Amino acid sequence: MIVMFGIFLLTLLVITAIAIVRTSNLFVGVMLMGIASLLIAANFFILDAADVALTEAAVGAGISTVLFLSALALTSAQERSKSSNRLLSFTVVAVAALVLIYATFDKPRFGDPLAPVQTHVAPWYLENTPTYIDIPNVVTAVLGSFRGYDTLGEVFVVFTAGIGVLFLLGSGTASSSLPRETNNEGLRHYLIPRVVGRFLIPFILLFGLYVQFHGEYGPGGGFQAGAIVTAAIILYALIEGERRALAALPQRWLLGLMAAGPLIYGAVGIAGIVMGGNFLDYSPLASDPVGGQHLGILLIEIGVGITVTGVLLSIFHAFAARGR
Amino acid sequence: MTTLLDVLSWVLLTLGGISVLIGGIGALRMPDLYTRMHAASVTDSMGAILVLGGIMLQAGWSLATIKLIAILLFLLLTSPTSSNALASAALLAGTRPIAERKQDREETP
Hints:
Strand content of chain A: under 5%
Number of strands of chain B: 0
Number of domains of chain B: 1
Number of helices of chain B: 4
Strand content of chain B: under 5%
Low-confidence stretches of chain B: none
Order of helices and strands of chain A: HHHHHHHHHHHHH
Low-confidence stretches of chain A: none
Radius of gyration of chain A: 22 Å
Oligomer: heterodimer
């Protein structure tokens, strides 16, 4: 039954991908990309990868759709005429597809218990998480502690990407140089979206905090929480106008948040050295090793969430500032 | 009692599935944006309520039911709002309902 469901979702995904390639209307393309993200998130969920599914749904279907739409507001909604060299592109794609299909022949069968991924380090993580870290969500234990270096790298990737986008678009104007405030900024003249949106924003923020701090016990963590909090603030910016959103969380604060996340993460790592362990070894942070691990994971997840929120919101405001 | 709940939940799930199907067919077959939205709202309202109700009966009194109620409340709040926003945006952008267009055609032969 589950396999049937997976095949159904993957078939829909292929249909959506073909539709994305074939449409020349970029708005339709963006909407289809959102649908593709939701489909792949559902597929991740079927494979029991709830953390990845949550990330894909929040970032892929939520935030990146908004960012694509704000980019589209700066350009035209129609694709330019197709390039003349279609045969060459088709050949490149066909060769790449054949190579990929050939590569899948060496992959282990789906769900094979003897596959390297099942026999190499995964059993060690599953066995030793209760003793060393003692949290129910092994994904968070692996992400935060066992493979803390990788996650530090990811946080720096997000940070660098944010810096790159801001260099290209400019970090937005100061709120004082915005045009005079009028009464129809954002959706302020639409009564119903405004009332419902204002009612929902606190709950979305609360859910973001839940995802942030519940990551040790269920699916969630800093990446997902950052995307959800960003979604709440973008909703605020959409219904109340950008000025109010920038007044609530000014651009210089966002730049500070962008840098604060990697700083918190790195500082936790260095604190490990100072307290007598290795870099990113959380065990010495508290009186007992397991408590230290809990504290370390909590702190680095906060760092991750802060960076993701700062970067995504800065990019959103940068796009919006270009539109003026 | 459990059999009764099971039967009831399957009836709800089936009716919900039928509503979603009707909504899908309507969204494809209706002539213009507003009538399509009208058809798609069957999915949002009846489909969501019936399917979530069916799952709630399957879950029984547990944390899952409370989460499902929260999801249902969220859907019941957001989907009419987004429909309203979509329809008013379309009206502002100049898309006119098909009935009005027909009326115009009859008045100006």
